[in-house]
Design a protein that fits this description.
- The chain is α+β, with helices and mostly antiparallel strands.
- The protein has 1 helix and 5 strands.
- The chain has one domain.
- The protein has a 5-stranded mixed β-sheet with strand order 1-5-4-3-2.
- The chain is globular.
Length: 108
């Protein structure tokens, strides 16, 4: 196996890992949310709005597309340099690595 083949295999494997992460579902109890989803000022009044909420483990980004009324919630790790501050009312937060698609449920 030559170097080019090894590099191609590594790139293909990295792509498969990214695809797997895109399909990962993270279930979050609504009680874990540390407040409501907040839309930063720069995202307000747009066709596509992005709002943010957080849990102890994740920053959640909820994207709502008013043109087709679809909603998607993605979970991101906290950035490594983040010191626990979270204030999307002042602007979009820094996000860490993508963790998966979030599903929020309420326990009955």
């Amino acid at each position: 196996m030559n170097t080019t083949t090894k590099q191609s295999d590594a790139a293909r494997e990295a792509g498969q890992i990214k695809a797997t992460m895109r399909n990962k579902i993270i279930k979050i109890n609504s009680g874990e949310l540390q407040g409501p989803f907040i839309t930063p000022p720069e995202n307000g009044g747009q066709i596509v709005t992005v709002s943010y909420a957080c849990t102890e483990c994740y920053i959640l980004a909820k994207t709502y597309d008013a043109s087709d009324r679809t909603e998607k919630i993605e979970a991101f790790e906290w950035p490594e340099d983040e010191e626990g501050s979270f204030g999307p009312q002042n602007g979009a937060p820094d996000l860490g690595d993508f963790a998966g698609i979030a599903e929020i449920y309420t326990e009955k």
